[in-house]
Specification:
Number of helices: 6
Order of helices and strands: HHHHHH
Radius of gyration: 21 Å
Oligomer: single chain
């Protein structure tokens, strides 16, 4: 039993050393400082969600090649958002100071509220379309494929939400 606890403690120490090394590199990386100016961070957030909008329109208008390019663009922009935020939302609590923990708490609270809002809107849309379908038969509920695509878009929107909120609200990185 004691050997197992020591093994767990050693694994945790290795993980923290690795995370500390990664955090140190991310916090001191200056290669992407042009991306980290306040105006460029906001442009990055807007571009990311605009690319998600292009992906949505391409999917619902049955343009698979445009949707594929928009999805690749969205993933690239999401990666750039993580770089611009210095991966601060993902650094373990042991490696950041009290102010950053408080900032992350606020960011995650707003991201949670945003995720609940997005998914509530999707569900309300489905209910509304079902009810409208009873009045106007030409307007009906979403098909299974459309429902899947809408949930996929909602998932992507919430996937980058913590980084987007952090980049939009934090005055200085």
């Amino acid at each position: 039993m004691n050997n197992r606890d020591e093994h767990i403690r050693e694994k945790r120490e290795v993980f923290l050393n690795l995370a500390e090394s990664h955090a140190s590199r991310a916090l001191h990386d200056q290669r992407w400082d042009r991306l980290r100016t306040p105006i460029n961070r906001k442009r990055l957030v807007v571009a990311t969600y605009a690319m998600l909008l292009v992906y949505s329109v391409a999917n619902f208008s049955d343009q698979p090649f445009l949707a594929l390019f928009a999805l690749i663009g969205f993933m690239g922009l999401a990666w750039m958002m993580r770089i611009a935020s210095r991966t601060i939302p993902d650094i373990p609590d042991e490696l950041v100071d009290e102010r950053m923990r408080a900032v992350r708490g606020v960011v995650y609270r707003y991201a949670y509220i945003g995720a609940v809002t997005i998914f509530s809107f999707v569900i309300a849309l489905e209910i509304g379309l079902t009810l409208l379908g009873k009045v106007w038969p030409s307007v009906g509920p979403l098909t299974g494929e459309q429902w899947f695509e809408l949930m996929f878009i909602a998932f992507f929107a919430t996937l980058v939400l913590p980084s987007a909120i952090f980049l939009w609200t934090e005055p200085e990185l």
